[in-house]
Design goal:
This protein is mainly β and 717 residues long. Helix content is 11%, strand content 38%. The protein is built from ten helices and 48 strands. It has a seven-stranded mixed sheet. A hairpin with a 5-residue loop joins strand 36 and strand 37. Helix 2 packs across helix 3. The chain is globular, with a radius of gyration of 27 Å. It starts with 8 loop residues before the first helix and ends with a helix.
Length: 717
């Protein structure tokens, strides 16, 4: 309907009451749905309901959808298998379910784009290639033991010595590994190629290369598993321990090789290799690289430093790997979506209602999930919806927190948001690893930015309104039991930070803020009656609170914590940087400078804290004294923000760029660009830049996920 004036609240209410019966009710299942593609034409859909009911999914390429998949057995944990999907098609689907009173509901219509298939490559084995013999059971048992020791079934396996290709065959039967065999003997190479080709594996899952020489022609950190068929046959293994150390992946790469190799000085003196010889083989497990960092939160850590403090990275860099995911499954760059995360050699990437888990060192897609409600945008005015803790990924989706196995993508548990007793519906807002607990917050439903309609979030207008939470709480990361809840004012999400046993944030306690119905607050409400608060992470008790007043933050308002110092940045037409002593909230120093540019996110740059300095817009200050230590920061034309390791800062100018802090060298990697917020993360001794430029029309021709490592390591191989 179109009116010639704005209707009053009473008129709107009257129209609603007259017409609400024709408005479809949007119903959510308790958890999900989420979809996993298992092969080229098969998908598993899973979801959870509050009460037992049949499993019904209706789908099709046309609307209304009509194809039904149904399991009539009542249950709360639902799983249906859908066969016959076509590639490069758009599908639509919805879930039907019954509530406790037996009334049938339907979810909204979801989309599924099958353009790209991220499932493992299908193989159709011909067992005649390796007929039963006295070797069959021996190689089958060896393959299974190798997989059990490695604890993985995806990634890269390098076999040094190909034999007949039988070990590669048995490994491929039992896993989704990509297997690369090397051997100096050309006759063995040709024989293994013929056998593996007959088996249906050669060029699909297994390749065999003839190579002589001391240095393997493989990238560093490629191999999740290094083994040898020669080892099973009792023959000498070609190549050397030095070759293994070059290609073995840190954080869990497994080498299974001759026991006498354990006496090699290279193996014995390797600081990051844990060797055991209790079996007939030497088993070496590569530990994390010494000095490597992790990127576990939106801005690196729970303190929002925008730094991993990784000590291994500096310039120049070389390409380690590149590939999927590309731009099609990613969100538009202008939505300023959550950053990728990386810990323990894994990379977690959030696409357009898709979640990816990758091997950070070789780019293998470990798992991928379609999750229709996975969406978070305008992170500078809110916070991320995920964090990584050890081997697990935590993701906030609607009103629950999902705990996901980082290696397999399996959903381990879900935890409900702790709701204030206000009568509002709530979604899970903030998420962080506080140390002992997982921290969360409750945001009024409808307050989170979704960014599904082409938003750019570039100006200090209504799209710069800050998302706020009505509480802050802590749960046990295993049981989900609520440890404590803090609830007083409206907590400003981009100002929540944690570190060294405390949680810090800024909240507004003004009636204009606390009584406003929406979770998004503009400057007229958010900058009144402000308090900075410090809580004990263990108990949730207030350590101190202090009234604060800033010059305004109509662009952004950030808070970071590092080394006993709280930093607050508010931007208007200027950058207003304030620091406080974390012990009691007392001011230390402040600085005010003109904004360098007011477009493409120029007023939104998030500070970086590394090497005891804080880098903000065009200046760097000593964190404790406020002394200007650098006034020549690199020009940053693009709309992204910076990230840092201990020795370098990464950013977008025209392209991916690095500033080496030791040499002051500034390098661009032309043809590649990140998105409009934080898309380049240093972790694990490498630099990770999953594709985030989707939707951009800038002259950046290479849209790919890519990883770099310090210069010289690739060329040396």
């Amino acid at each position: 309907a179109i009116f010639d004036r704005a209707l009053s609240g009473e008129e709107i209410s009257e129209r609603w009451n007259q017409n609400k019966s024709i408005v479809p009710e949007q119903i959510h299942v308790k958890v999900g749905p989420y979809l996993q593609r298992t092969d080229r034409d098969t998908i598993i859909a899973r979801w959870e309901t509050e009460s037992p009911c049949p499993s019904v999914l209706v789908y099709g390429q046309e609307i209304p959808v009509q194809t039904r998949v149904e399991d009539k057995a009542p249950k709360t944990q639902h799983e249906v298998v859908i066969d016959g999907f076509e590639n490069q098609k758009m599908y639509y689907y919805r879930i039907e379910f019954a509530d406790s009173e037996g009334k049938v509901h339907s979810t909204r219509l979801h989309e599924l784009d099958t353009t790209f298939d991220f499932a493992p490559v299908e193989t159709h084995l011909n067992e005649e290639a390796y007929p039963e013999s006295e070797d069959t059971q021996k190689f089958a048992a060896a393959a299974q033991e190798i997989l059990d020791r490695a604890g993985i079934d995806r990634g890269y396996c390098v076999l040094l010595g190909v034999g007949e290709g039988r070990l590669a065959y048995e490994l491929a039967k039992r896993s989704d590994l990509e297997i690369l065999c090397l051997d100096p003997d050309e006759a063995k190479v040709q024989d293994a190629r013929r056998r593996l080709d007959k088996a249906g594996l050669y060029g699909v899952r297994v390749s065999v290369q003839q190579h002589e020489g001391d240095s393997l022609p493989l990238a560093p950190y490629l191999a999740n598993i290094v083994a040898s068929e020669n080892l099973i046959r009792g023959e000498a293994v070609p190549y050397s321990p030095q070759d293994v150390l070059k290609i073995l992946r840190p954080n869990g790469g497994i080498a299974i090789l001759p026991k006498d190799w354990s006496q090699s000085p290279l193996i014995k003196d390797a600081p990051d290799l844990l060797v055991t010889t209790e079996s007939e083989w030497m088993v070496g497990e590569r530990k994390p690289l010494e000095g490597a960092g992790a990127w576990t939160h939106q801005y690196g850590d729970a303190g929002n430093t925008s730094s991993s403090h990784d000590r291994l990275l500096g310039g120049p860099l070389e390409v380690l790997w590149y590939g999927e995911p590309g731009p099609r499954p990613m969100t538009d760059r202008g939505t300023r979506s959550p950053a990728p995360l990386s810990i323990n050699g894994r990379l977690f990437v959030q696409g357009d209602r898709r979640l990816f888990g990758l091997d950070a060192y070789n780019g293998t897609i470990l798992w991928e999930r379609e999750i229709p409600d996975l969406r978070r945008a305008n992170v500078p005015r809110d916070c991320s919806n995920k964090m990584a803790r050890g081997d697990q990924l935590f993701v906030a989706i609607r009103d629950r927190l999902w705990k996901v196995d980082g290696q397999t993508g399996e959903l381990l548990n879900t935890y409900p948001v702790t709701r204030p007793d206000t009568g509002f519906d709530y979604d899970w807002g903030y998420i962080a690893d506080g140390g002992t607990h997982v921290l969360g917050s409750a945001v009024r439903h409808g307050g989170l930015y979704i960014g599904a309609d082409g938003e750019w979030y570039d100006k200090p207008n209504q799209e710069s309104e800050k998302v706020t939470s009505d509480n802050l709480f802590a749960i046990d990361p295993e049981s989900g039991e609520v440890a404590w809840v803090y609830e007083k004012g409206r907590i400003i999400n981009p100002t929540i930070a944690a570190g060294d046993g405390s949680v810090y944030f800024i909240e507004s306690r003004s009636p204009e803020a606390t009584e406003f119905r929406s979770a998004r607050l503009g400057n007229d409400k958010i900058f009144k009656d402000q308090y900075m608060v410090a809580l004990d992470e263990q108990t949730g008790k207030v350590i101190w609170e202090r009234p604060v007043e800033f010059e305004g933050g109509n662009w952004v308002l950030y808070l970071s914590y590092y080394d006993g110092v709280i930093s607050v940045l508010a931007t208007t037409r200027q950058f207003h940087l304030h620091t406080f002593d974390a012990k009691d909230g007392s001011p230390i120093w402040e600085h005010h400078s003109e904004m360098r540019r007011d477009h493409h996110g120029g007023g939104m740059q998030h500070p970086v804290v590394t090497r005891g300095n804080i880098y903000s817009d065009s200046l760097a200050f000593n964190l404790h004294s406020g002394k200007v230590v650098n006034d020549n920061l690199p020009e940053r034309r693009g709309c992204g923000t910076m990230s840092a390791a201990e020795n370098a800062i990464f950013f977008r100018h025209h392209f991916h760029s690095i500033w080496d802090l030791d040499t002051d060298e500034r390098i661009q990697y032309e043809g590649l660009r990140s998105g409009c917020w934080l898309g380049i993360v240093p972790a694990g001794g490498i630099l990770l830049a999953p594709e985030s430029s989707a939707g951009c029309y800038c002259a950046d021709p290479i849209q790919t996920s890519i990883a770099f490592l310090p210069g010289g390591m690739v060329s040396e191989n």
